[in-house]
Amino acid sequence: MKRLLFLLIMQTIVVHAEKLENTCHEIHLNTCHEIPLDLLKEILPHNPVILEAGAHCAQDTRWMAEVWPQGTIHAFEPTPVNFNCVCSVAQQYSNIKCYAYALDYECGVKLFYQDGDEDRGTQGANSLLPHKLLQKSSNSPIKVECLTIDV
User: Fold this and answer.
1) How far apart are CA 10 and CA 18, in angstroms?
2) In b/e form, how buried is each residue of 56-74, taking b as 16+ CB within 10 angstroms?
3) Which residues pair with 44 in a beta bridge?
4) Do the beta carbons of residue 72 and residue 97 sit within 8 Å?
5) Distances from the Cα of 45 to the Cαs of 1, 71, 86, 109, 148, in angstroms?
6) Average model confidence (pLDDT) across the chain
7) I need a surface site. Which of 18, 103, 114, 127 has the fewest CB within 10 A?
8) Is the pLDDT of residue 56 over 60?
9) How many helices (H) and strands (E) does the chain have?
10) Where are the alpha helices (DSSP H) in the chain?
């Protein structure tokens, strides 16, 4: 039921975003649509609990912590170099909690395919699923601990 509710909220955001012309503060949610920040502020409460799956280097984590200072951001990032970046940002905000886990449909240790340079962080195109582009990466897959989210 909660998954259906989430999908309905996302559909509502996309529909409203298409109708709005003022998009000076835009957020890209890996879709072809741009979501105005004002719309998210209108939909979410002043103290949301946000689950960020794949926090990368905490760019989005930081602005969410600033936009919703009364909220809590749970930032998940399994890549060690990027996780260190997330932890550095989290030290500056009391409303960010960071976790060195990937999220999946089952718990356990799995291979995690990375894009980019392992020593300097990744480009964000990482996945638990083997993809042709990631398999050609100079990085070897790493083993990461996976959690599920019970809702």
Assistant:
1) 12
2) bbbebbbebbebbeebbbb
3) none
4) yes
5) 20, 9, 24, 35, 25
6) 76
7) 18
8) yes
9) 5, 10
10) 2-19, 37-43, 59-67, 80-90, 132-135
Length of the chain: 151
Tens-place pLDDT, residues 8-20: 444 444 444 444 4
Cα gap 91→16, rounded to integer Å: 35
pTM: 0.71
Confidence category of residue 86, pLDDT binned at 50, 70, 90: very high
* 21: exposed, middle or buried (Cβ count in 10 Å: 0-12, 13-18, 19+): exposed
Single-letter residue type at 43? I
Token code pair at residue 71: 């909220």
